[in-house]
Specification:
- The structure is a single chain.
- With about 260 residues, the protein is an all-alpha fold.
- The protein has twelve helices and no strands.
- The longest helix has 30 residues.
- Belongs to the binding-protein-dependent transport system permease family.
- It holds the Pfam family BPD_transp_1.
Length: about 260
């Protein structure tokens, strides 16, 4: 048997195993109970149009946290590669702390810990400001590492060429290195946007209202009211409506980067 024939045989066996597993699962599943628990169209219809407020809030929370993460993460990345040791120490500690802490705990600290430590403090935008800072702090640590990797991926010859033209180190980083680094790290930044979309489900810890709740909290409330899992399915589909296009965009950008 030739190597090609062996590969074909191996693929055929794998396909057969997958088909057999799917067939067994389909045969033993209680489709009546599944339909009753997850596919009640009247319950799904009753969620609209109110669910769009939560859907929009999910988008807003994601964008605010991502913008905050970029604004903080890029300077942290520059500090990580700085020749000034205290900057590197601070940036390294920042990244390790906020990558190590769960996003839920950071949100809780921002929403409740800081106001207790500093009575009278007010976040701009209320819950939206708390979410931007809470999720943004965690996001900024991951963004900083992605940007740092992008900076280090820029050929050193470009830095040397810029310095030979009389550019200062700061100007070289801002005008030559950073723009190229950001193009390199577009795919991982897009993946971070997908992660933030899912992490927005943690906003419930801040005690949101009907006007400020996100998609996951809305679906859980509907689940409690209807005693049926259909709202969770609807919520999951709406999350996929956001994350699948972002995932496809990330893969397309990654392929573009590989082609270059």
């Amino acid at each position: 048997m030739t190597p090609r024939q062996r590969r074909r045989l191996a693929r055929g066996i794998q396909y057969a195993v997958v088909i057999a597993v799917v067939a067994v699962l389909a045969a033993v599943a209680d489709w009546g109970r599944i339909a009753e628990s997850f596919f009640q169209l009247d319950i799904a219809a009753a969620m609209f149009p109110a669910v769009w407020t939560s859907f929009w809030n999910t988008i807003v929370y994601t964008v605010l946290a991502f913008v905050f993460g970029m604004v903080v993460g890029v300077p942290i990345a520059l500090m990580r590669v700085s020749s000034f040791a205290p900057y590197r120490w601070f940036a390294t500690g920042y990244v390790e702390v906020f990558r190590g802490l769960p996003a839920l705990l950071v949100l809780f600290l921002v929403g409740f810990g800081v106001p207790q430590a500093f009575p009278g403090i007010q976040y701009p935008g209320g819950v939206y400001g708390q979410v931007a800072i809470g999720l943004g702090l965690t996001s900024s640590a991951y963004i900083a590492e992605s940007v740092r990797a992008g900076i280090q991926a820029v050929p050193k010859g470009q830095v040397e060429a810029a310095r030979s033209l009389g550019m200062s180190h700061t100007r070289t980083m801002i005008t030559v290195v950073l723009p190229q680094a950001l193009r390199i790290v577009v795919p991982p930044l897009t993946n971070e946007l997908v992660m933030l979309t899912k992490d927005s489900s943690l906003v419930f810890v801040l005690g949101v209202t009907t006007a400020t709740m996100e998609l996951s909290k809305f679906a859980r409330n509907e689940l409690t009211d209807s005693a049926n899992a259909t709202p969770l399915l609807v919520g999951g589909l709406l999350y996929l409506l956001l994350t699948i296009p972002l995932g496809l965009l990330a893969r397309r950008l990654e392929h573009k980067g590989d082609a270059r």
